[in-house]
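Query form — protein HicB family protein

QUESTION: What is the three-dimensional structure of this chain?
INPUT:
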Amino acid sequence: MQYVALFEKDKQGYSVTFPDFPACTTCGETLSEAVDHAHEALAMFAEDLVERGKILPEPSEKKKILAQTENKSKKAINISVKGDGTDFEEFELVMHTHLLERIEKCCRKNNISPADFLAMAARKTLDSDEFAE
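ANSWER: The structure tokens for HicB family protein are given below.
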């Protein structure tokens, strides 16, 4: 299913709301990061609802949402979600123990998970065109 996410520029970057899920919000320093966070937030929120026996609502129409006065200045993007626990995927990763120890130390210091650390590093690299020819 695809649900509308509304992106609004603010002092810290972008805030994200979902009209079909008012309790689900997220943000990002850049639009790209906010879009990534929107995918993650909606997937976790929908999965939690389904696990609690709730039925996901029918998605609202983007045109109707953008027609509302309070949404005129916001950017709307459709975010896909399965809501059945398959939006996230586990994978195996092999790296040198020295690098892994550095990552784990950084994660402890900043109170983040290794998965969040790697996601942040991946976003930074993807946004920088590090591997552009």
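ADDITIONAL NOTE: The first strand starts at residue 2 and ends at 10.
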